[in-house]
User: Fold Sirohydrochlorin chelatase from Nocardia aurantiaca.
Amino acid sequence: MRAVVARIAAQRPDLDVRLAFLDLSTPSVDQVVDAVASERHSRAIVVPLLLGSAFHARVDLPGLLEDARARHPQLRLTQAEVLGPDPHLIIALRDRIAAAMAADGASAALTELASPHVRRRPAGPRWGIAVAAVGSSSAAANTRTGDVARLLSAMTGWDTEICFATTQPTVQKAFARLRARGAERILIAPWFLAPGLLTDRLRDALPWLPQAATIGAHPLLAEVALDRYAAASLPLELSA
Assistant:
């Protein structure tokens, strides 16, 4: 995440870009907001580096920002939209999968992937891709995450299945479905920004399968984050 934020800052040197964490690491959201307020900024856009709109985006972060507004009434805080299944991030996911295929000895398939507009299955073995996300207690959030697998399939022609690290369907279920449809080789594609406990859990579930890298500091991630910033910073339209 520090590499992502450094890339964002490099692309927009006119902005004061800072990294904060919701939990498990520092600096915290509270610490960063307090620092911004102490430096007499009047407005801050908070861009959640989150792939889904679930508890963190809908409850956790808004609660933290509401408390911060009470502490710093002079600071206008705006929460931007989550990253979501943006087409640019689907391309980033595709790039990570292609790299994993190459590492797994499937470099012949990469020629077909040079364009983000590929609509047919690459040559070589028939690949099945288990797109693995964190999962949510919100069925609606999980349904939206399922769009990632569908968009990836439309872009590349790969056979895809969505699965989750914390709920159903599991990666084992996705593996079984892909095998039943005739996939000759199967790869786990984490729909995660960074590695951690849950990506380790996915790897341990089926340790013989290749697993792509997380999206990480892909250049397109910085672009999407800046798009969310730009949308949130637009002036509100006044209704009649």
